């Protein structure tokens, strides 16, 4: 803080009271931390905040033009809801938290893979429903020798690859950027080969015009009918209707999903009814509690302090000078 003035940080999203308490505790004492859902109250606070952390809103030129004191738009890993050019035009820093959640998300991916092949949700329900074990029947698999295909080979994709190596799996990866380097044990390949050769296909790309609905009916048709599809990136990368059809028609064997086209996932979504699907409510990057990851907020506080001290933020998305 400069001149003893309190830093006002506006967080916009849907948070429980417990989440709010946990989040506020991570910021320095004396800072004004306002956590509100999208709507009128948000518009009132945006006029005098120095920082906005937007969760469920589009940060465009019209919104930014109202924020006369805004210095930083800080997002998590994804920033598809922020107009970066508008931030630059208005002299506002934009930054994400690239890599901060890589360990958490990669661990979540492995938990989903293991839950699926080891039938953990099914067997847990079987035991708790007190069913006679003579009626038990299931199919599963070891991970050793399976091929996993990683779409997007950034911090999260590379961490997933490391974990899979420990399970003696073969790892394929695809990245749009031709300069992305392999980890040595990872084989970089083209998109079509990856989806057709992999036993598991996991998405770790950002959502942009090139990746919007990248995974569609044609892609699912190219996958093995025994394939497991995983998405912990962004729901918009997948055509959800095509995914549901592929799961129901047997084009793929199963799916593990943490993100969806519409969030929260509608209560009447067919995905909730499919037995070959494991669902989590966009929690892969929040290992410490609902809507809470301590490492994420430590990063946010450090970045806010950098901007307040006249420095560039880490993981900047634009350049102001």
UniProtKB/TrEMBL annotation:
SUPFAM superfamilies recorded: Formate/glycerate dehydrogenase catalytic domain-like, NAD(P)-binding Rossmann-fold domains
Family matches, as Pfam families: 2-Hacid_dh_C
InterPro entries: D-iso_2-hydroxyacid_DH_PdxB, D-isomer_DH_CS, D-isomer_DH_NAD-bd, NAD(P)-bd_dom_sf
Signal peptide: none
Domain of life the protein comes from: Bacteria
EC code(s) of this entry: 1.1.1.95
Keywords from the UniProt entry: NAD, Oxidoreductase
GO molecular function, one term: NAD binding
Domain D-isomer specific 2-hydroxyacid dehydrogenase NAD-binding: 110-284
Keyword Repeat found: no
Entry's family note: Belongs to the D-isomer specific 2-hydroxyacid dehydrogenase family.
Name of this chain's protein: D-3-phosphoglycerate dehydrogenase
Species per Swiss-Prot/TrEMBL record: Lactovum miscens
